[in-house]
Amino acid sequence: MVFVTLRYLATGSFLQVIGDVQGMDKGTASRVVSKVIKSLAVHFKELIKMPENGEERTAIRQEFFNIARFPRCIGALDCTHIKIKSPGGADPENYRNRKGFFSYNVQVICDATLKIQNIVCRWPGASHDANIFANSRVRALFETGHFGDSLLVADSGYGIKPYLITPLSRPETQSQHLFNESQIRTRNPVERCFGVWKRRFPILALGIRVAKEKIEPVVVATAALHNLAIIMKDPQPAINNEIEAAVEFINNFDIVPVPVGGQDASNNRTRLLLINYFQDLL
Predict the structure, then answer these.
(1) CA 6/CA 201 separation, integer angstroms
(2) What one-character-per-residue DSSP string does the chain give?
(3) Contact in structure between 186 and 64 (CB atoms under 8 Å)
(4) Which of 63, 118, 231, 252 has its Cβ near the most Cβ atoms within 10 Å?
(5) Is the per-residue pLDDT at 279 higher than 60?
(6) What is the tens place of the pLDDT at every residue in 166-217?
(7) pTM for the complete prediction?
């Protein structure tokens, strides 16, 4: 059962093809895959979780700090598109993204080792990254101080917050350039995470061909297995030209910046303190 499911997730093949290879009909293959995926999705919190205590946060901060001396960071935030078939129903166009294919826009926070700490998979492809974060539980936890003075880093598609640090759009001073360089390098793990995750499980880039209500468990299951592979030090998958082209295409979206006028200037204080911190490093 597990082998059939892993083959399905790792190839993106039709269930009919998977069934033929394993000597079972499509219906049986579908039931087997659904059962294993549901089991993984139910237990995903054991593998996908934000750091919940000071010791865990300190360890993750140090891993991020080692990249480019960016302090207090416990996660790199971004969204990525997961290709799906047309969902049908009354609002299929809500799932058509800016590149013209149907997708879910999936929010991820990862650590410096590319492990996924938080995942939100319920928003259609036309949704803006910033809107997904604004309506997420993890944002509410940061707003209420659940993670202390810890920070997230993200690209300019998000509005700056006291706990969510984005790059400067037009750095001028040496310290501002140093801040931007460090911020960009520190958030790079989430971009690498998306590539490794989709190469491990090409179904995410080639397309998930199941009913809409079954998509979230599939995505969450692959995220949990991705983390398990990192924990077990499983080598990254070899390059496959067809899969690589699909991954590059689906990951290559231009950033849609949050309008400057739509951001609260008072949220800049933490970023200014960080720029001063980098000034002291000069």
Answers:
(1) 9
(2) -HHHHHHHHHH---HHHHHHHHT--HHHHHHHHHHHHHHHHHTGGGTS----SHHHHHHHHHHHHHHH---SEEEEEEEEEEEB----SS-GGGGB-TTSSBEEEEEEEE-TTS-EEEEE---BTTS-HHHHHHTSHHHHHHHTTTTTT-EEE--TTS---SSEE---SS--SHHHHHHHHHHHHHHHHHHHHHHHHHHH-THHHH-B-S-GGGHHHHHHHHHHHHHHHHHTTPPPPPP-HHHHHHHHHHH-----PPPGGGS-GGGGHHHHHHHHHHHHH-
(3) yes
(4) 118
(5) yes
(6) 999 999 999 999 999 999 999 999 999 999 999 999 999 999 988 898 899 9
(7) 0.90
Q: Which residues pair with 102 in a beta bridge?
A: 96
Work out the average pLDDT over 134-150. 97
User: What average pLDDT does range 123-142 have in this prediction?
Assistant: 97
Instruction: Give the pLDDT of residue 20.
Output: 43
**Amino acid letter, 269:** R
